[in-house]
From TrEMBL:
Heme in keyword set: no
Gene Ontology, cellular component aspect: extracellular space
Residue intervals of the Peptidase M14 domain: 60-357
Coiled-coil region: none
Gene: LOC108670559
Organism whose genome encodes this protein: Hyalella azteca
Superkingdom as given in the UniProt entry: Eukaryota
Active site: 323 (proton donor/acceptor)
Record has Chloroplast as a keyword: no
Keywords for this protein: Carboxypeptidase, Hydrolase, Metal-binding, Metalloprotease, Protease, Signal, Zinc
GO biological process, one term: proteolysis
Name listed for the protein in its UniProt record: Carboxypeptidase B-like
Membership in a protein family: Belongs to the peptidase M14 family.
Length: 369
């Protein structure tokens, strides 16, 4: 979610004494005005609870250190299934970690394929610091994968980076809850690069900014940031095996498909749309929550240098980004008492995605024989 949007909704927060005047002025200028929250301060206080006894990932957001502990504990519990790999370091020296989870293909299924290499699904979250729900969603996915080894999602190998932007994430916990970018310094009076404008695909193009103070500042060069380089290198290491990519963001409840930088139709768009709609259906089965499936450029907003487009440009058949719950009432300040519903329903979509990737890969292997 970014502020760059010429024809779509824009959210503005104003102080109570001028709220009525501001609404009046906007209406006079032909804006459709809806009040999504009467009291933003109250939403802030409902967001993370400082006093808590237990920290289950479905009941609370996790600080960076807690995320690391969570991953380490799972590896200790499932040493033959999972490992954590450091894929890079931020400018401040903070490690960036990736969880690798082996596939559980039955011998019969793997014999049916042309080779024994499992398809890989790459998933990342926490690219934008304030999008805490994205981190909870990927942690829940990791937990499900390891604790439900019979899940159809275990037919693929997983590479999951839960916090792409650890410095930004920590900053959103300790200083500015609504911080988006990384914490790059030395670029003038403002800090931070929007990591999701820093990938090498149409870099410098539409929907990105050259101004360091902008929330969509793309950085001085493609892959100028250690965080995007870490994701790039981890990805390229298994490039030929990666058949699916999901980047988790919040919020809007949409499944976004390439391209985001240009109106041209992606060669695999039909197949991607079918898969996206299958995911949306799987999500809605849980509690009726509706996710739309969009071509990003046409229906959402144009953006250049995004990870989704970069992965799609490498020929990976399925590359998408999910803007998680909700549609704006809580927005980035998603309440902790709703995490469980949110992560469990989206898990159903992720599971469907992996199952379908496995099926399509088997088919591809079969036709190549
Ligand atoms: Zn985002």
């Amino acid at each position: 979610m970014s502020e760059y949007n010429t024809n779509g909704p824009v959210e503005v927060a104003v102080a109570p004494p001028i709220s009525r005047d501001a609404q009046e002025k906007l209406r006079q200028n032909d804006f459709n005005v809806t009040v999504v929250a009467q009291d933003v301060e109250q939403l802030f206080s409902a967001s993370p609870s400082i006093f808590r006894q237990t920290k289950k990932i479905t009941d609370a957001f996790l600080e960076l250190r807690e995320v690391e502990n969570f991953l380490d504990e799972l590896v200790v519990k499932h040493p033959d299934q999972a490992r954590v790999k450091q894929i890079g370091k931020t400018e401040n020296g903070t490690p960036i970690h990736m969880m690798i989870i082996k596939s559980q293909i039955s011998p019969a299924a793997s014999l049916a394929g042309a080779n024994n290499v499992s398809p890989v699904v790459f998933l990342d979250s926490g690219t934008h610091a304030r999008e805490w729900l994205s981190v909870s969603t990927s942690l829940y996915a990791i937990q499900q994968l390891l604790e439900q080894p019979s899940s159809p999602a275990r037919q693929v190998e997983w590479r999951i980076v839960p916090v792409v932007n650890p410095d930004g994430y920590a900053y959103s916990w300790n200083t500015n809850r609504l911080w988006r970018k990384n914490r790059k310094s030395g670029i003038g009076r403002c800090q931070g690069v929007d990591l999701n404008r820093n990938y090498d695909v149409n870099f410098e193009g539409i929907g990105s900014s050259r101004r360091p103070c902008s929330d969509i500042f793309r950085g001085p060069a493609a892959f100028s940031e250690p965080e995007t380089r870490a994701v790039r290198d981890a990805f390229l290491e298994v490039r030929s095996e990666v058949k699916g990519y999901i980047s988790l963001h919040s919020y809007s409840q949409v499944i976004m498909l390439p391209w985001s930088y240009q109106p041209d139709v992606h060669p695999n768009l039909k197949n991607m749309t079918d898969l996206g709609e299958g995911m949306a259906k799987a999500i809605s089965k849980a509690r009726g929550t509706k996710f739309d499936v969009f071509n990003t450029y046409k229906s959402f907003y144009p953006a250049s240098g995004t990870s989704m487009d970069w992965v799609a440009s490498l020929g990976v058949p399925h590359s998408l980004a999910i803007e998680l719950q909700d549609k704006g009432h809580h927005g980035f300040l998603y309440p902790e008492n709703k995490i469980r519903d949110a992560v469990t329903e989206v898990w159903k979509g992720i599971e469907f995605f992996a199952e379908e990737i496995a099926r399509q890969s088997r088919q591809e292997n079969f036709t190549q024989q």
